[in-house]
Amino acid sequence: MPLLTQVRLKHTEPCWMAILERQGSSRYLAQAFETLFTWLALQQLEAVGPPIAVFAHNPGAPDDSGPLPSWGVQVQVPAPDQLRETPWSKVRVQPVAGAAMAAVLYRGDGAAITEAYQALDTWIQDHGYRRTGPVQEVYLSATGTLITESVTEVRVPVAPTAEGVE
């Protein structure tokens, strides 16, 4: 089973993020992260947390058409507080507020990641929450980890519904 944990509610801390926006298919996600990490290296800095993809839509949703749908995505890395954007860069640096998140850990190559998205949707509905932002994938495995062993936290910002939380 690719899910490593049950869905849980967690709170993220506010932090600075280096952000690069891209359009295209999932095959370009690694290239976007490479661009972002190269930019950080040129600033003589390193990320202070794992890389994150923030999707404009739910990549686990059944409405994806074909094996490589076109996505709007932000690739993000938590950045040192002293980082500021340069005027010639496509990388945006900004503070990101902390948030309540419904989150689940997933292991695998993404072929069955739909299970993680479905678990999140079920938990949100069953526990009296609603989505307040786009879905995020936090890539927790080190570079070079076998794709079948890679661990991803799939999460989405949430808030209680008007009916309240169970």
What is the compact description of this entry?
The protein has 166 residues and is of the alpha+beta class.
Explained architecture:
This protein has helices at about 30-40, 115-125, and strands at about 10, 15-25, 50-55, 70-80, 90-95, 100-105, 130, 135-140, 150-160. The protein has one domain (about 10-160): Regulatory factor, effector binding domain (Multidrug-efflux Transporter 1 Regulator Bmrr, Chain A, Alpha-Beta Barrel). It is α+β, with helices and mostly antiparallel strands. The chain contains two helices and nine strands.
Features:
166 residues, alpha+beta, Multidrug-efflux Transporter 1 Regulator Bmrr, Chain A, nine-stranded antiparallel sheet, 2 helices, 9 strands, 34% strand
The SS-based structural class is: alpha+beta
What's the helix-strand series? EEHEEEEHEEE
Q: Classify the fold: give the CATH topology.
A: Multidrug-efflux Transporter 1 Regulator Bmrr, Chain A
Q: What is the molecular shape? A: globular
Distance between termini?
27 Å
Q: What is the C-alpha radius of gyration, as a whole number of Å?
A: 16 Å
Sequence-ordered SSE layout with sheet pairings:
Elements: E1 8-11, E2 15-24, H1 29-42, E3 52-55, E4 71-79, E5 92-96, E6 100-107, H2 114-126, E7 129-131, E8 136-139, E9 151-160
Antiparallel strand pairs: 1-6, 2-4, 2-5, 3-4, 3-8, 6-9, 7-9, 8-9
